[in-house]
Amino acid sequence: MSTITPPSFHMALALLGPALAYVAYSRYHEARAAKLAQTAFKGKVVWVTGASSGIGHALALAFARGGAKLVLSARREPELKRVAAECALAASETMGKGDAKGAPLEADAVAKVRAAVADSTT
């Protein structure tokens, strides 16, 4: 005796199949991007502007986890110090050590940019 699957099962499979494939595809590429970030920027100096919040904050944490030496810039110094501490902690959790320097500055402060770059390479 064979079992007959209800049409609703086939309809659900037809609707969920592409979604499940997309989730698997996305997870694969997220893992691949994370692996690339861990190797591509390890030991490199990365400057993140606007690091105190939003995308700059997220980028700083991602680069820290990848082993980059960070120079973080933002206008708000207290938030910048907080993010630098978060990045040092994130780097120490994944890489065994963490290094992030904050450089509070306005976007047009060229002299401060040059000084921060010189400080990060020493």
Short description:
The chain has 122 residues and is α/β, with parallel strands linked by helices.
Q: Which key features would you list for this structure?
A:
single chain; 3 strands; alpha/beta; 122 residues; 2 domains
Describe the structure.
With 122 residues, this protein is an alpha/beta fold. It has 2 domains: 7-40; 42-122, NAD(P)-binding Rossmann-like Domain (Rossmann fold, 3-Layer(aba) Sandwich). Helix content is 62%, strand content 13%. It has 4 helices and 3 strands. It has helices at 7-40, 54-65, 77-95, 110-120; strands at 45-49, 69-74, 100-104. It has a 3-stranded parallel β-sheet, with helices on both faces. β1, α2 and β2 form a beta-alpha-beta unit. It starts with 6 loop residues before the first helix and ends with a helix. The model has no long low-confidence stretch (mean pLDDT 74).
